[in-house]
Amino acid sequence: MYIQMKYRVLVLKSIFVAVLVAEGSSKTKLARISLRQRLNIVYDIARCLCFLHEEKCLPHGNLKATNIVLFGPNLTAKLTDYGLHHLIIPTSNVEMMLSMGAHGYKDPEEDAFPCYETDVYAFGVLIMEILTRKRAGDIISGEPDAVDLVDWVKKYAESNNSKARMEFFDADISNSADALSVMKKLLDLSLQCILPVNERPDIRCIARDLSSITVR
């Protein structure tokens, strides 16, 4: 392979991957992934973010479901497109990239430029997607008011109706008491990720809590 050094080029290993949430057939793809696999995927993503934040001192900057690929039979999750804001120098270009790609993942408290806290917020939204099999930024139909995924999840999480709280989980994986217990723990973590910035845990704390969750 020939690469001219004056160009900024991303080179990815070409192997079979499954995109976690893609356009069109995403719901079918995710339906085939068990709760145990989804928990492992969430933990893999958290570990990747820990590496970026702690080892590389670098926020991902554009975390979203379509930047997660699953490798091999074990569906090992890897992150793509991280740190692109460092390659796009003008601030206006960074803002354009983020507004185009992160609809539904953007932290309402932070400005456009990426930081660790915005990664944690987006990670919380990713967990919500994995639990509900709905896409971030989509307007949830059938609601009296137009709400996106985050508002919809918060509404049901705060509901006093335990049956209603359970019904918004993906039915393909919420088929036992143990599964519901695991999903409630993941839901609690996702809600911690979208807390106000001064209350929001860092990704290391989230990863530690994830490591204690198991599927029987």
Automatic annotation (TrEMBL):
PROSITE patterns: PROTEIN_KINASE_DOM. Residues 1-213 form the Protein kinase domain. Coiled coil: none annotated. Transmembrane segments: none annotated. InterPro entries: Inactive_SerThr-Kinase_ABA, Kinase-like_dom_sf, Prot_kinase_dom, Ser-Thr/Tyr_kinase_cat_dom. GO terms for molecular function: ATP binding; protein kinase activity. It holds the Pfam family PK_Tyr_Ser-Thr. The keyword Signal applies. Keywords: Signal. This is Protein kinase domain-containing protein.
